[in-house]
Specification:
There is one protein chain. This protein has 319 residues and is of the alpha/beta class. The chain has a single domain (35-318), classed as Rossmann fold. The protein contains twelve helices and nine strands. The longest helix has 20 residues, at 267-286. The structure holds iron/sulfur cluster (SF4) and zinc ion (ZN) (2 copies). The site of one zinc ion has 8 residues, from helix 1. Pfam families: ATP_bind_3 (PF01171), TtuA_LIM_N (PF22082). Residues 56-189 form the tRNA(Ile)-lysidine/2-thiocytidine synthase N-terminal domain.
Length: 319
């Protein structure tokens, strides 16, 4: 099958758009979608100047998503002195998993010539995820601990690195899953928070002064296309799955979305587009409630809604 835009052979077919693309046109199409998202989300602040550039910290795990995001942002802003990129990698302490992906992060950062920071649960919290899973004092899934720890470190280091923006490599499949899960859980306030935390144009989000704003510029690109982009560009991405991956509900939703997408191409796009519109309305509705009950954790000083933050209480029960 030929490319829809030229005579070269197509390397992919997107059922949701009907197009067949060759390697060059596919590459161009992915990059275009990411740049359009950067514009639509208003990510480049009007205050950014070459003298006073913005720092964008990218959560760089070494998996295909964050590697592709880093590569495309680098190409987009390499010649733009208003934006400085920093890769931030978190080592959870998972045998046979994170070591290789850290290598991929180091390799990519060196290749692109961007600053790279590596932090670990072991150094920061004195625990490794492998031990946490063994102990499991709260009788929870591994990801429930790991998510709290990762979020804490991303926020702490984004702050320390003087980040204006914290970017993560969530793709269309990830975000459509989260949208559907939030919707099925029926928690509208959670949906409003999701909008203010990481969706929608920066200029339209509710006040969140305590946190570095987040952005997900890869969320228009389906997971398969991210993987193909990494492969075609020969990027150093690490693909093995975490041995503790345990989000069973997300797995169910993922399967449901595969089936829907197969029979009704474009479902992921329409779920996310509709969800973002609704989330924006919900965020307006809940604005003002926000931040009222925020305080500083008495143990570590991070911003929380309780006396002792979730991370500190988990560390306490692991001690
Ligand atoms: S899959 Fe779960 S345990 Fe593994 S790195 Fe991700 S959040 Fe942590
Ligand atoms: Zn082509
Ligand atoms: Zn704390």
């Amino acid at each position: 099958m030929d490319c829809t835009r030229c005579d070269e052979e197509a390397v992919m077919h997107a059922a949701y758009s009907g197009s067949h693309l060759c390697a060059d046109h596919f590459r161009e199409s992915v990059e275009k979608r990411v740049r359009r998202r950067v514009r639509r989300d208003d990510l480049v602040s009007h205050d950014a100047t070459p003298e006073d550039p913005e720092t964008w910290v990218i959560g760089l795990s070494g998996g295909k998503d964050s590697v592709v995001l880093t590569q495309i942002l680098h190409e987009t802003f390499a010649e733009d002195p208003r934006i400085e990129l920093v890769g931030l990698t978190i080592h959870e302490g998972i045998e046979g998993y994170r070591d290789e992906s850290v290598d991929a992060c180091v390799e990519l950062s060196e290749e692109l010539g961007i600053r790279h920071e590596l932090v670990s649960y072991a150094e920061e919290f004195g625990v490794r995820m492998d031990e946490v899973v063994e102990d499991d004092p709260e009788n929870m899934a591994a990801c429930a601990y790991c998510g709290v720890f990762r979020r804490d470190l991303l926020e702490k280091y984004a702050e320390e690195l003087g980040a204006d923006l914290l970017l993560t490599g969530h793709n269309l499949d990830d975000e459509a899953q989260t949208a559907l899960m939030n919707f099925l859980e029926g928690d509208v306030e959670q949906i409003a928070k999701h909008f203010d935390a990481s969706l929608g144009p920066l200029s339209e989000r509710g006040e969140q002064e305590e946190f570095v704003p987040r952005a997900k510029p890869l969320r228009d690109v389906p997971e398969k296309e991210v993987a193909l982009y990494a492969h075609i560009n020969d990027l150093p991405a690490h693909i093995t799955e975490c041995p503790h991956a345990s989000e069973a509900y997300r797995g169910e939703i993922q399967q449901l979305l595969y089936d829907l997408e197969e029979n009704h191409p474009g479902t992921r796009h329409s779920i996310l587009a509709g969800y973002e519109d609704l989330a924006s309305i919900a965020a307006d509705e809940y604005s003002g409630d926000d931040g009222a009950d925020l305080q500083e954790c008495v143990e570590c000083g991070s911003t929380t809604t309780r006396e002792v933050c979730r991370k500190c209480s988990l560390l306490e029960s692991l001690a």
